[in-house]
């Protein structure tokens, strides 16, 4: 039984972490509820309605583990509002690290992003691949990661960082313009409309179901070897956008053809992770794409 504080606990990833951990642990959500994915709170879970930049020192003495998922998550918004992005993702993270430094924290798990790699020089992308972000979002996530690793080296805070690739879950909101391709395709196809593919559809991504992300976080909390390290969170399998569209159309039993549009400017062609470092920690991605997508039908 640990006392776990989950920042962004009302969000897409945070809410699944709450679900996983709350039965056997004492879980507290810290969220400003600016864009909650889930508004209701599971029984027994406490809520601190606050921003990650607020003074939350009074709560630190009751915390063993911090899982920091709260962030400004939109690449597009970061391009238009880089200060807003940095205030949330850099200053918010630094605030939490400072609070944690003065408390007796067993583990601080930071959600970084595959966006920190920028345009891959080669695939699969291992953790030692250069991190040359192409957006303020990628830069702020990288800054947060650097602070976390530095806090481990300089202050001995037991930090560990996760770099998720393309996460999907039925809780991703398709009406959010910043949502990923899977929620957009599902939204269209389930309503009988053709999915829109940008470019020739031969670009690839490494899609990871949110429950596999939760499994990796669990390992990062329990394994001492995770401290001071960063881990790719992905499946190591690449899927083309054409394949994705086919699977979703098939799953919903529709007779549809994708609608092709011009490629998006700056779109990354191929992205797939080398997950051997996470595998050494004991990570095994369990949900294949089709199985993960089937959970959208149960929604
Ligand atoms: C993901 C992240 C982004 C950033 C980036 C780093 C999401 C939603 N976005 O961008 O935040 O971390 O990785 O590399 O997780 N596409 C279509 N039709 C659509 C929507 C998308 O063809 O209706 C294509 C799009 O052109 C791209 C692929 O699908 O090639 C994936 O798009 P995405 O927006 O889900 O994610 P990505 O990898 O571009």
Automatic annotation (TrEMBL):
Coiled-coil residue spans: none
Source organism, top-level taxon: Archaea
Boundaries of every NAD-dependent epimerase/dehydratase domain copy: 4-233
Similarity annotation: Belongs to the NAD(P)-dependent epimerase/dehydratase family.
PANTHER family to which the protein is assigned, alphabetical: DTDP-D-GLUCOSE 4,6-DEHYDRATASE-RELATED
Name by which UniProt lists this protein: NAD-dependent sugar epimerase
């Amino acid at each position: 039984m640990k006392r776990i504080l989950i920042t962004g606990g009302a969000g897409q990833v945070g809410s699944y972490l709450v679900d996983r951990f709350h039965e056997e642990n004492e879980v507290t959500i810290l969220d400003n509820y600016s864009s909650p994915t889930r508004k209701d709170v599971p029984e027994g879970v406490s809520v601190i309605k606050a921003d990650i930049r607020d003074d939350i020192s009074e709560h630190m003495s009751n915390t063993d583990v911090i899982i920091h998922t709260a962030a400004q998550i939109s690449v597009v918004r970061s391009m238009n509002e880089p200060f807003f992005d940095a205030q949330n993702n850099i200053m918010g993270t630094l605030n939490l690290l400072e609070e944690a430094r003065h408390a007796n924290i067993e583990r601080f798990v930071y959600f970084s992003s595959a966006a920190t790699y920028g345009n891959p020089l080669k695939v699969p992308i291992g953790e030692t691949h250069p991190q040359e972000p192409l957006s303020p979002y990628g830069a702020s996530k990288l800054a947060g990661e650097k602070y976390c690793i530095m806090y481990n080296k300089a202050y001995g805070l037991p930090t560990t960082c996760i770099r998720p690739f393309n996460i999907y879950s039925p809780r991703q909101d398709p009406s959010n313009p910043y949502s990923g391709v899977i929620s957009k395709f599902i939204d269209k196809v389930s309503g009988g409309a053709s999915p829109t593919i940008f470019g020739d559809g031969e670009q690839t991504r490494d899609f990871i179901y949110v429950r596999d992300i939760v499994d990796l976080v669990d390992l990062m909390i329990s394994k001492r070897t995770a401290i001071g390290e960063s881990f790719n969170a992905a499946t190591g399998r690449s899927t083309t956008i054409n394949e994705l569209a086919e699977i979703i159309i098939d799953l919903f039993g529709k007779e549809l053809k994708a609608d092709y549009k011009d490629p998006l400017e700056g779109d990354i062609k191929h992205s797939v992770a080398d997950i051997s470092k996470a595998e050494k920690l004991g990570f095994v991605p369990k949900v294949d794409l089709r199985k993960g997508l089937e959970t959208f039908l149960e929604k």
